[in-house]
Write a structure and sequence with these properties.
The protein is α+β, with helices and mostly antiparallel strands. 28% of the residues lie in helices and 33% in strands. The protein is built from three helices and four strands. The longest helix has 15 residues.
Length: 119
């Protein structure tokens, strides 16, 4: 099973250059968490504790996006580590962050980094 959060938008102050850290930018976070449902109840339990809560995925992303870093790779790593800690049963995790309008004066829609974890 995969639980995903796609297109979570954040305004944050990540960036290598001081002007990026000062003016901020719009970022989009996508997360996918793959896991096997419990063998005993599986999907029949109807209990949020037996799955990945996408609201918590958003909260994790929001907390980390509010802590400025120079590299979005660092932000994605922190998000991934928080998800691994919260959902130790996760078998695969993918975290992607898009930075919109990353280059001043250049016509670039976004840049993107993607991290993958497999247990």
């Amino acid at each position: 099973m995969i639980v995903a959060l796609h297109g979570a938008e954040f305004f944050a102050y990540h960036g290598f250059y001081p002007e990026e850290q000062h003016t901020g930018n719009c970022f989009i976070v996508d997360i996918e968490v793959e896991f096997e449902p419990s063998a005993t109840d599986g999907l029949n339990s109807d209990d949020i504790n037996d799955t990945v809560n996408y609201e918590e995925l958003y909260d994790i992303s929001n907390r980390r996006m509010q802590q400025p870093q120079k590299l979005i790779e660092t932000v994605a790593t922190f998000i991934m580590e928080d998800i691994k800690a919260q959902y130790n049963f996760a078998q695969k995790i993918t975290v992607s962050i898009k930075k919109q309008n990353p280059l001043a004066g250049a016509k670039v829609k976004y840049t993107q980094i993607t991290l993958n974890y497999t247990r």
